[in-house]
Structure prediction request, 672 residues.
Amino acid sequence: MNTIKDVAKKAGVSPGTVSKALLDRHDVSNSTKRRVKRVAEEMGYIPNIIARSLVTSKTNTIGLVTPYLGNPALIERLRGVQNACLSNKYLLITCLNEGGAEEELSQAEALIARKVDGIIITPTGNSIKLKEFISRIEIPVVLMSEMIEGTGCDFVGEDDYEGAKTGMEHLISLGHRNIAYFGSFPEIYSDGRLAKGYRDTLEKYGIPYRKELVLWGNTDRDILEKNVERVMNTVSAPTAIFAWSDIIAIDIMSKLGKMNINVPEDVSIIGYDNIDFLSLFHIPLTTVAQPNFLIGQKTVELLLECIERDGENEPTGKLIFRPELIVRKSTGPAKK
Amino acid sequence: MNTIKDVAKKAGVSPGTVSKALLDRHDVSNSTKRRVKRVAEEMGYIPNIIARSLVTSKTNTIGLVTPYLGNPALIERLRGVQNACLSNKYLLITCLNEGGAEEELSQAEALIARKVDGIIITPTGNSIKLKEFISRIEIPVVLMSEMIEGTGCDFVGEDDYEGAKTGMEHLISLGHRNIAYFGSFPEIYSDGRLAKGYRDTLEKYGIPYRKELVLWGNTDRDILEKNVERVMNTVSAPTAIFAWSDIIAIDIMSKLGKMNINVPEDVSIIGYDNIDFLSLFHIPLTTVAQPNFLIGQKTVELLLECIERDGENEPTGKLIFRPELIVRKSTGPAKK
DNA sequence: CTGAAAGCGCTAACAG
DNA sequence: CTGTTAGCGCTTTCAG
Prediction:
C-alpha cells in the first residue's frame, strides 16, 4: 500500500509538503500542488484516514446503533441518516442489533473505540448499565425515535403519545368502545408511549380501560395468532384494534381472515408506520404515519451541530415530530 | 479521554505492561493483570482501536457497499452479514447507496481509507472505472448477489439464470405461452441474468420471444403502471407475468386489480425474492426464493477466510445457491 | 514556500 | 515478569 512517503519520494518533495498539497493548504505553491496531486493520482494513493485521525482526533465518521430492520419504517429512517451523512461528507457506521441493552452497549463501545465523532442510538433496551454508559459518553450522542429518560441526551423522534391519541380518536369517532391494543414489548419506549396514549384517550372519553384488551409479544407471529384468538373470544370482543406497527396490523388482518372475521365490517384495524406498499393490500390499511426519512436526516443534522460546537455549550435539543393519521379502508363504523 | 498512559500511571506500571495486560498476554503476572484490568475498568478506559490498528495494520472491521434496502430481501442479506460479523467479532461498516457505479466507487474508497480488512460489494453499477478499481483493490473483496465479470473477485450469490428457468417452467407447465417479463434495469447483473433465463427458457420450449413483452424501469411505480397498461393492450396480451422482484409483482397485481383483471384467473403472476409477509396478501404470491440470510453469512465467512490467509494463495471462490420455487395462489392454469 | 522534527495512542521487540 | 524504545502514517508546528 502506498504511503505519503512513497508519494513524496516520487514527487521529489517532503512528506509534510505532500500532506499540505493534498489538503489544499494555501502555503504550498500551485505548481507543487499540481505535481503532487498528479503523482498521487497516478499511484492510486489513498490517504490513511486512520493515521490522520490519530493526529487530528477527528474521523469524520458517525456511528448508528439501531435494531434490525424488520420494520420498513426503520429503513426509511436509516435512509434519512445515510442521506444526511453523505451530503455532509461523513461516513456512517451502522450497527444493527437484535435489540436489548447488552448488544447496544457493546456496539456503542465498539464505535467509541473506533473514535467516531458522534453516535446515534435507537435504544430498545433499558438497563441501568446502558443508561449510565450513555450518560457518560464523552462524544455527542443523539437518541433517535426511542428514548431513555434521564440521560440528558438530545433526542429526535416522533410524538408517539400524540400518535396514539390521533389513532384512538379516529376509532372512537367511528363509534368504537371496545378497542384492543396489540404491542410488542412495554419496555420499548415508543410502545410504552403508545400504550399510555391508548389508555389515556380511553379515559378522556370515559371508556373504561380493560386490561385483557392489551396484548403484548406480537412481533412473534405465533403469539400474535394466539392473542387474536383469545381476545376475539372474550365476553365483549373488540370491534377495533390498534397495532403498534403496520406489520403487526397486517398479521392481525391475516389471522382475522382465517377466522372469517371481516375487516372493517366486524373489526376495524389501525396500524402505525405507514409502510408504503401496504396501501396495495386488498384492504388498504388505515395507519398513523411518521416522517421517517426526515427524522433520520434531522437526527444527523443535530448530531453534527453538536460535533461542530464540540461540547462548548450544550443546550439539550429535542426535535419531536407530529404523527399524521392516514385513513384508508381497514377502519369503519363500529358494529352495533 | 483516558489513554493507556493514564491507566499506566494509576496502576503504577508502564504503558507497555498495560497493553500486554489488557490483551491478556502470557508474559504478565496474574496479579498485575488483575490490577490493571480493575483500574482500567474503574476509569472507564476504552482502548483506541484506531491507534492499535495503525501498528497492527488490522482493524477487525469489514465494509459493505450495498444498494438501499427498498427490497426486504436485501435486509435479510444484511442481517446475515451482520450476524456473521458479530459471531466473528468483526465490526461492520455498512454503506448504503442509491445504486450506480460512482457512489459505489466512492464508498469503497472511503472504506479502504479507513483500513477495513476486507470489503463486500453488491454492485448495481458497472462502469469501467469501477471495474478497474475493484480489480486493483489490495484487500480481499467479495461480491455479493450482483456480479461484475472479469474482476477476479470471489462471489457469493444465487443462480438467477436457474431461478428464471425454474419460474418459467412453472408457468409453461401451467400452459402459459404469452409470458411477459417485468424487470428493473438490464444493466443490473441479476436482472440481466433473469431476463436471459426468461428468454432461453422460452426458446427451449419452442415459444417465440417477443420483445414487446419485456418491460423495464418497473421500480418506478408510474412507469410500471404504464407498462402494465401497454402490455395488457397488445394484440395477444400475456396470460402470465414474471417479475424481477416481489415488490414489482405486488405492484403489478395492484394495478391489474384496478383494471379489473383477475389474478390468477386472467393473468398469473410470479415474483422473485419470497418476501415473508407477502404470503399474507389476499392472493398469496407465487415466487422464487433465495436463501438470503445464508448468502449474507457465507459471504462474510468467505471474506474472513481470505483475510485470514492474507492473500497467500488466492483460489477464486464462488458460492452459488439454487433458488427455490414457492407455489402459492397467484399462478394458475392459462386462460384459454 | 519547503523541510525537519515531534507526536497522536498504541503494540512489539528487546533489554534487563 | 516489567520497562524502554521505536515506529505505524499522518499532520502540524517551527525553522529556514
About this structure: Chain A has a mean pLDDT of 92. Residues 88 and 240 of chain A are 45 Å apart (CA to CA).
